[in-house]
Specification:
Layout (H helix, E strand, L loop, with lengths): L1 H44 L6 H14 L1 H22 L2 H7 L4 H4 L1 H38 L11 E2 L5 E8 L6 E8 L8 E12 L5 E14 L6 H6 L5 E14 L9 H6 L10 H31 L13 H8 L7 H6 L3 H67 L6 H25 L5 H5 L1 H18 L7 H11 L20 H21 L5 H6 L2 H20 L5 H7 L17 H8 L3 H45 L1
Antiparallel strand pairs: 1-2, 2-3, 3-4, 4-5, 5-6
Helix pairs in contact: 1-2, 1-3, 1-6, 2-6, 3-12, 3-13, 6-12, 9-12, 12-13, 12-15, 13-15, 17-19, 17-22, 20-22
């Protein structure tokens, strides 16, 4: 009962620690993706005089749209931080010491992440279509809004439709424009009017649909004969024009400065972009209907090609005699002349007409089918977009699960809390996921890969990583320890540590040379038995025999015990001989012998054979070291007998 109560308290502690951390990281990740959105669309928002409420609404919908992107990253970061903190503060060690495995400690969080993933699915299916329609309609409305008038000095301003405006100087206090030049091309370039004035002022009507332009002390130049055609005007040497001088002149220019919001029905009614506003059942129905249309179009195209392209000459035959020549040829073989021979038999004029007619028919057929292919390409891309949205409703929740089983084991292995190392690892993992996911998305969108493979491509890559990290964390792996990789590369490059046994000034426990001599003799016998049994390690024994490593560890342990005893000697010849002993290492194995991954690798050709071949140099080196140890034992034992020979005889 106490154990059960202890587990319940552990679950409560883990949940109360993880949930606030998840909320914090989710807010941070959502803020980061919102900043990316802001930098992407900042040019569409600046300088249009949008109200704060419109901007706030846009950021609100954008935040809701980016929830599926921020959620997996938040789960990854929170899992890394929490289990890293628990590992750094030795809480994980205490949990494991209490007999609670890592997977059992992860059980409440696993249930929580499964619940979050289910919620993410329903969010993608029921909420996102409505939010996406509102977000895209608002974003398009902002893009189409007219920019706020902010006319610069000394350059031509072209944002007013059909007008080019030049201002020499502006009075910032009164808003008066000085040295103004206006090109009016509203009636066309050939009927352009030019206005020059000393000063002018601009204002908007109350409904913000017309721009009032009041000019002072200026002149207007325009073509006199505006109704004549451009061709007759260009034939004259002189083009008459009209000049008007004015003290005050007012122009009204069409300029809608209001923010006209687009309705959501524009997005929902679009055949190429309405996939964002559909749920799972609607996407499936749309895919079925468009696929049916594509099949019918393909059947019509095949029939058209057969009827009007390749066999169009048969259309002029009578209905009952189309295949009479073919049937007759089957009964009585007929020599059919080559087409070139038939063409050459005609006069040159007829040959030219035949070739031109053939070319025109081929060109017309080519243009017609290119046009048909463009329509089919557009329809196929729309189908691919629908498949992408359909699969995303499942891939995002599944990615949340994968990132949890990457972050939690990795945090328990790294054992680093805070925001430093977890953020670095999270960013690297998310960048890998983002790149792989975008590759699958673009391949699916362009129809290069099948939709199920492209959209689940990132999951196929990340799932083995999550399984591998979970397996390593359960077995207390040291894959993130730098010394592990240093020792690994040392073993690959056959770089050994050298033994150093200096003469000690104070010896607490003197070595028993007689006992050491007997131990070295037993060690040589062990090596003989080992070499006799494992002189050649078979392919099956390499993957399945667990006694190889055990006996090799026993040999190494016996040798190290004897050498540690000899390190207390004050004899230089003994110490120098002990320093010649090699440092033994194991064969480099990816998986533990006899385990399920080892069995899979053994039967998985050619991977198992390649790994076995790579291990042969290590096996040869181990056998060479063992023989060298036997040789050193044969040289060291007489030295030890020479030191304590008389004492040994006296005792006998």
């Amino acid at each position: 009962m106490r154990r059960f109560f202890h587990i319940k308290r552990l679950y409560s502690y883990i949940l109360t620690t993880y949930i606030p951390l998840l909320l914090m990281t989710f807010v941070i990740c959502l803020f980061l993706v919102l900043m990316q959105f802001l930098w992407k669309y900042v040019e569409d928002m600046v300088g249009k005089g949008l109200e704060i409420s419109v901007l706030a609404e846009m950021f609100f919908y954008a935040a809701l749209t980016f929830v599926p992107m921020a959620l997996p990253l938040a789960i990854l970061l929170a899992s890394l931080m929490m289990f890293g903190n628990m590992g750094e503060s030795l809480e994980l060690l205490a949990v494991k010491a209490a007999g609670v495995p890592l997977l059992t400690a992860m059980k409440p969080l696993t249930i929580l992440i499964v619940a979050i993933s289910i919620g993410a699915f329903f969010y993608q299916n029921d909420v996102m279509p409505k939010i996406a329609a509102k977000n895209y309609s608002l974003l398009i409305s902002i893009r189409q809004a007219s920019p706020e008038l902010e006319i610069p000095e000394g350059v031509f301003y072209k944002d007013i439709p059909n007008y080019n405006l030049y201002v020499g100087k502006k009075d910032q206090k009164t808003g008066t424009l000085h040295n103004v030049l206006i090109y009016d091309i509203e009636n066309g370039f050939n009927s352009m009017a030019v206005i020059v004035c000393d000063s002018a002022k601009m204002s908007m009507t109350d409904d913000k649909k017309m721009l009032l332009f009041t000019m002072y002390n200026g002149q207007q130049f325009s073509n006199f004969d505006q109704g004549s055609s451009s061709s007759s005007r260009y034939n004259n040497d002189f083009v008459p024009y009209a000049r008007e001088s004015f003290d005050t002149k007012t122009m009204m220019i069409d300029y809608d400065a209001n923010f006209n919001r687009m309705g959501e029905d524009v997005i929902e009614g679009s055949s190429t972009s309405n996939y964002v506003s559909k749920n799972l059942s609607q996407l499936g129905a749309s895919i079925d209907s468009m696929s049916l249309i594509m099949d019918s179009v393909n059947r019509v195209d095949r029939k058209t090609i057969k009827t009007y392209s390749y066999l169009s000459f048969r259309n002029g035959y009578p209905a009952g005699k189309k295949d009479s020549l073919i049937a007759a040829a089957r009964i009585t073989p007929v020599d059919v002349p080559a087409p070139d021979t038939l063409v050459r038999s005609k006069p040159l004029n007829d040959q030219s007409a035949i070739l031109q007619n053939a070319f025109m028919k081929a060109d017309n057929n080519s243009n017609e089918f290119i046009f048909r292919s463009l329509n089919k390409t557009t329809t196929q891309k729309t189908i691919n977009r629908h498949w992408i949205e359909l699969h995303r409703k499942f891939t995002i929740p599944f990615t949340c699960l994968i990132f949890f089983f990457i972050g939690a084991p990795l945090g328990s292995i790294v054992r680093k809390g805070g925001l430093g190392t977890p953020i670095v690892i999270s960013v690297i993992m998310f960048i890998i996921y983002y790149i792989v996911d975008n590759v699958g998305y673009k391949m699916t969108r362009d129809g290069v890969w099948a939709h199920w493979f492209g959209m689940w491509f990132s999951s196929f890559i990340l799932l083995p990583i999550g399984v591998f990290l979970t397996y390593k964390a359960i077995n207390d792996s040291v894959i993130m320890n730098a010394d592990t990789y240093v020792n690994f590369f040392k073993r690959i490059l056959f770089i050994r540590e050298t033994r150093k046994y200096p003469v000690k000034s104070v010896i607490i426990e003197k070595p028993d040379y007689n006992e050491i001599s007997r131990s070295l003799s037993e060690l040589s016998q062990k090596i003989d038995l080992f070499l006799e049994r494992y002189g050649h390690l078979s392919y099956k024994d390499y993957w399945m025999d667990t006694s190889y490593n055990k006996e090799l560890r026993s040999i190494r342990s016996s040798m190290e015990i004897s050498l540690n005893s000899l390190s207390n000697s004050n004899r230089l010849e003994v110490l120098s001989k002990a320093e010649e002993y090699p440092v033994l290492f194991n064969i480099v194995r990816i998986f533990e012998t006899g385990s399920l991954p080892a069995k899979i690798c053994m039967y998985f050709f050619p991977a198992g054979i390649i790994i076995r071949l790579l291990s042969l140099p290590f096996e040869w080196t181990i056998r060479k070291d063992l023989r060298y140890i036997q040789q050193l034992n044969g040289e060291l034992i007489p030295i030890l007998h020479g030191i304590y020979g008389p004492e040994t005889v006296a005792l006998a």
